[in-house]
Amino acid sequence: MSENSQGSATVGRRQVLAAGGLILGVGSMQVLLPSAPAWAQAPAPGVTLEPFTDDAVIVLSGDSTAVGACPRQLALRIVNPEVELPAQTKIEVVFDGRLYAPRRAALLSSGKRTVKTTTTFTSPDETGTVVCTVTLDEALQGLRAGEDPVVLSVATANTALYPHDLVRNAKDSKVTVAATRRSAKVERGLRAGDVPRAATPRLPWGVELSGGWGRHRPASGAQFAYYYPTQLRILAIGPGDGPDATTFNVSLDPYLVKEVTVTAMLLNGKRTPGKVNLAGTTRNTSLYQTEWRLPVKLKAGDVVEIALKTTLLSPPTNLITVKHPVVTVNGTLDPAQRQTGRHTLTRLDSLWGPESG
Amino acid sequence: MDAMVLKAQRWVNATYGSVAGYNRCAEDGSTGWGTMFALTRALQIELGITSLSDNFGPTTLARLTAHGNVGANSPNMNIRTIAEAGLYCKGYDGGNIDGAFSSSRTVAGLGTMQDHMGLFPEWTISPKVFKALLTMDAYVLLPGGNQYRRQVQQWLNRSFSHRRDFYLNSCDGLASRSAHANLILAIQYTLGFTDDSANGNVGPATKAGLQASAYVHEGSVDSGPTGWVRLFKAGLIFNDFDGHWDDADPQFDSRLADKARLFQEYTVLPKTGDANFDTWMSLLVSTGNPNRVGRAMDCARPLNAAKIATLKANGYEYVGRYLSGGTIKVLTSSEIAMINDNGLAFFPLYQEFGDSAAHFNYTQGRTDATAAVAKAHELGIPFGTVIYFSVDYDALDSDINTYVIQHFKGIADVVRDDGNKYAIGVYGTRNVCSRLAKAGLTTRSFVSGMSTGYSGNMGYSLPANWAFDQVANLTLGGTVESPNVPGSIEIDKNIASGRDVGVTSVTRPRDYNDAFYTYMVWVETRAQQWWDQGNHDRSPVELAAQYLRHRNGKFNFPGSDTVFGSIDEDFITFVKNYPARPDMAPLRDPKLFRDQDIPHFGASFGAVLNNTLHSDYTKVSLQDFGGWAGDLVSAVLDFCKTGRPASEAYTWGLNYIASDADVGYFNIDDFLADVDAFVFGWLHNDGDQRKLSQFFRDYYSTPIASPGRFWAFFYYRFLYSEETLRAAARSALFQLSDLMYTGVVGTFWLLEGGTGYTSLYTVPDEIREGIARAFADVVLEHVH
To answer: Residue A14: what pLDDT?
Structure first.
């Protein structure tokens, strides 16, 4: 983690940080003065930290069937009624860098007001721990009746970690606000709330989808282009085995595609008994969608290759809108399913005359 | 599974599921394109758009702009809810997905996303941010991403997204076409382009602007928060050079100059360390400055002496040529010899229909590699040489995963099974080249940089193992390549990095007839083309022979078509106008060291195909007259012209027939042509599928093989019988039973004239007997 320092930006409105829905998870914030005088050690209740923790994000480990969690936001409200936090007060947020995508600089704000701060990020060890130190560049006035407390926003859970999304021994976060002349040191863990649990715990598993496209080339209409999937490749990325049934959808424009069929399937390069079954078809004026079910349960490392045959329709001259082609390997609501972000494919570069939408 | 994504999916389906044109998304808690498109259509419904589309296009943007920023105080609770749902789909906190938008969570989540986008927090969602919200773009550093690239992506968004056509690019640290296009837009804005003229493409105006305004060097300083120094730095980072970014740093310092020199060295530009035009172009476009000097080229058509001379005169050192493929690409040993003899190196390419995804799979990879390796062995290409296999289309990442990598695994397996004698290279976009190198499947890359608009080039840096970079298509030695302008040649100009030294010699011993084989294959390929175009009056083999016959015009005379077959003049014209004809080279007998008469062969071969042998092998027919029998009549004719006594006919005939001296119509060149024409024609008529070029290779490659055709001549024509041979030779000069034969002989005799005899059949028997006997003895001499 590089060191980054930046003053806070101006906040537009005041009302944004209304109370409610803000729950801290595990973690601690620490407010520190440059040198802590003896009086600072005395208890001085008056600063309360309220982390945002009720919105939990699943954290999976590669060698465990347990489903962990972390708060989606590394943020908290600082409730300091009548207690001023002076300039140079330090707030320290310690978090697991494997889980969070930090802001360029922490933001301490309330409604239209932004408190000037300086943020530094350091990595004190090689475990991935990150320490975000926010130093107040101006005093944070004590909260008065009717005012919203300031919110400190540091990071958000990184949901796009794949293929490094399996995190062993994820560390909890904490926030510490150092003691000041009028307040004692305050520390608070940031632990997430509950997350969905599977009925039967299992090792994390997932799929990765890729595919190739054919181009719809009508005899006329140089400005026209539409793509349709010709082949799919589904990789079971493990480490656990997949569900009993893997399904995928192929969604296409109903005015441009008459029919899609699966013509062949290979499992690990070989033909297998059974065929990819059509599980459902939807056809209306805006969508032609087929759902397909694989005949095999995917084990970690399995590769399924599927050949598709698409019967095309001539593009209508008055096509004013388009359904982009989409292939998606459907999710299962299983908490152990890894979020690869690679379970869906599309192409956005179709050309279909007068652009709409 | 993300519980809030699931909640978002359920909400949008429940709210809009009954609206015509809305497509339900899967309720599975996983963000995918289906969910994003559902949210897009939901937004369009709220904006009053009736023709719903997955596309967040101009109409949606305009309506949303009219609606205004979306936030806690904006009208339309559903639009606010859609925004909150989108935030969750992006991975950010969107509150309770209830449109309240006033909770601290939503605002903090939005603020963090805006921060990750590089923007300053605004607490409301602008139309452009909303458009970005409904994509799968990431704004966090993704695995494999570069943090400095991400900082540049953020800086671009922050600095230029206020301009009309600048849409927010992803900020994930990965190479991206959209971010690269945005960098070009930023340059155009800096050049003063209006919103109407800036388009994200490096066109003439942008080039002119770069030349006139963008030169910066060590010591230069940006005067504001943006400027040429930062743009140059951004370009270096987008090309994976430079490991530092600071918004606040306006300096072109010595560190940046060093990075510029490294980039220039990498791209084979003069190492000046400054931001000159060529360097800008190499940063922005996959061709770089296409007008810069290139030392390498590749071309689809074979090279001949004149074209090679043109290449040398223009400073080219490396020649890319196809090992096989198609109807016009073939590389031959004679071409290799010419290339190497002229001090050039060549690098072998392989391509068979590799211009769409459908071509690529593991099995096809094996097939391609098998053919390429076999050809490389045949040509004696030294072990260790890189063979470049083509991926000649704009393969997307998903294509590469699904098709291309599997294809190259097939190639790799075949090469490994062959003992790893050849290295595997690839011709393709920067992304294809990099991905295959990263997968360990290739060692060198030939980059199709000329396709600047390809998604696999724009935004991607040159692969680390690049050997050649294709930058321009041009014609040398004339304005267009034409068979009428010797030396004119259309090429693709390549920049050579020096990572591939090419092939400067081959291990296969040189065959004196290589150049003829090259020529012959080219003619045959034209014949096959002509056939493929629907001209089926004559077989491709006969067409090829007709072109040979036509070469010097000696075998087109009144009545010639009766003997040799009627010529297809349209085909002759077709071939004459076809570009890149190899040099016409001689065909030398490897034992006798004498050249065969090629046009004569073409004519006699036609006679064999268009006539039949007499059922009695001691008799002759027009088939014989078109070859050896006609030449034997010529020999009588020539003897008569000498005025020598009849008693000398035999001795004269022995010295005349198949003579090394260039006399008359039946010297060694003619004799070889007659023998070859009959043998090859007989075998062809018997069903042998070999092309003429293969027949020639089989009989002309070694001194051991070459006498075989005399034996075959004796066997097939004369049944390996001296008696039949002598009888047939006599028939050629005495036979009167075949009116067609005697008619043609009579015509020929009259046309030549000057013998003192009104016809062959009035020539004294002693002369004819002597000549016939001499011919038989000459044949037997060659057989034995």
So the answer is: 26
